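step=encode ok
step=design start
structure_in=
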């Protein structure tokens, strides 16, 4: 839809938005008129180099032609039917996902937070079915982010963040331990604990990478105490960090993994995958969704995943991401650059992340700020070293202009 199609100006759109929408976002000062590959274009045709990718979504590039074609094809056959008839896109996607990451079973959802709800519910059901009614407690990491619905929000270890303030009490059954500290997790295990739930890199928490030692220790702790390991791969999944899933860098295997964002290439879809044993806790009527497994979203996901796999975009993310991080580390006022693949952040030596983000926006580079000091970048995985050079140049000017 373009302004001329509806006879509006950009100012009209802004006015309607401010008057009628419940606004919880700090908007960019332009509208998204077109998106293509590494670029977003505003109402006047200005191009913005996109290093936020709809927050780690548009991995094969915005409006990837194969994804767009798959959507157009599918909307002409079936747009929505609920999960009663068998579905070609669901079956093909289920096989592709399970075989690619070596999992037994999948359940489709529509978003990240919903996928984490499914993951938490499945772990609780498995625990209480097999070990008694109190066996539903889950330990998550401090500073984690798992979503904004009540289960996922309660799993989130950020009690002082706006995402939790005013919504208390959180659901019972969650406790929180220090990320990258196995001893703290071990200390929080009780007879009622069924699972440990983690992101391999805390994305919203500031791009904090789990250490190998931590992941080894957590895997051992789960084995020793008979706990399930739940991995939230919503931001890190589907080659963002170089491998299909972030946990694959560590040689560990979770019992349940949640995914969303990049899997749909821009269409809203999420999922959980689980081992056969754990998945069997979900029985008819115990879980369901109207839109999860929607045929258009599944068709888009098949095309997106094929693009990521066929074009080796995971290898590209690993190589270009390492190059990018090295360059970022040389910028003035950058205390540290960190991340893995193309999930990258710079930590500034002062509380100026929002100012850097704004200065970069003025110079046509799109990034996100996390907290006071961190600027995060999650560009499409098609990003080249030249794109990164451009981003580094703009960030340098943005920091120097502070
Ligand atoms: C690790 C992680 N889990 C869950 C979510 C929630 O996903 P959604 O916004 O699709 O509900 C996010 C979103 O940023 C995330 O990064």
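sequence_out=
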């Amino acid at each position: 839809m373009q302004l001329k199609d509806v006879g509006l100006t950009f100012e009209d759109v802004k006015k309607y938005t401010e008057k009628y929408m419940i606004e919880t976002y700090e908007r960019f000062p332009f509208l998204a008129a077109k998106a293509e590959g590494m670029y977003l274009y505003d109402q006047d045709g200005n191009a913005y180099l996109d290093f936020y990718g709809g927050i780690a979504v548009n991995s094969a590039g915005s409006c990837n032609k194969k994804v767009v074609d798959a959507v157009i094809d599918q909307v002409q056959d079936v747009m929505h039917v609920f999960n009663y008839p068998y579905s070609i896109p669901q079956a093909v996607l289920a096989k592709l996902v399970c075989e690619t990451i070596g999992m037994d079973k999948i359940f489709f959802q529509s978003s990240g937070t919903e996928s984490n709800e499914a993951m938490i519910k499945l772990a609780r059901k498995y625990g209480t079915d097999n070990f008694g009614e109190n066996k539903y407690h889950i330990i998550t990491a401090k500073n984690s982010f798992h979503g904004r619905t009540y289960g996922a929000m309660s799993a989130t270890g950020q009690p002082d963040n706006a995402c939790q303030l005013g919504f208390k009490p959180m659901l019972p059954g969650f406790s929180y331990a220090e990320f990258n500290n196995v001893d703290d997790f071990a200390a929080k295990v009780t007879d009622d604990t069924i699972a440990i739930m983690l992101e391999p890199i805390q994305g919203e928490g500031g791009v904090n990478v789990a250490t190998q030692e931590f992941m080894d220790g957590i895997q051992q702790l789960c084995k020793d105490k008979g706990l399930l390991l739940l991995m939230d791969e919503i931001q890190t999944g589907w080659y963002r960090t170089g491998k299909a899933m972030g946990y694959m860098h560590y040689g560990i295997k979770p019992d349940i993994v949640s995914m969303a964002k990049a899997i749909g290439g821009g269409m809203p879809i999420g999922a959980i995958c689980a081992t056969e044993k754990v998945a069997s806790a979900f029985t008819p009527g115990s879980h369901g969704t109207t839109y999860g497994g929607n045929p258009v979203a599944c068709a888009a996901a098949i095309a997106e995943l094929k693009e990521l796999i066929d074009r080796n975009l995971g290898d590209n993310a690993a190589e270009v991401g390492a190059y990018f991080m090295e360059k970022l580390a040389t910028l003035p006022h950058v205390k540290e650059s960190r991340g893995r693949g193309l999930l990258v952040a710079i930590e500034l030596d002062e509380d100026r992340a929002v100012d850097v983000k704004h200065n970069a926006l003025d110079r046509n580079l799109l990034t996100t700020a996390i907290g006071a000091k961190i600027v995060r970048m999650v560009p499409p995985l098609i990003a080249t070293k030249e794109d990164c050079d451009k981003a580094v140049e703009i960030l340098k000017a943005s920091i120097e202009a502070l």
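step=design ok
step=annotate ok -> The chain has two domains: 32-60+312-400, 65-310.
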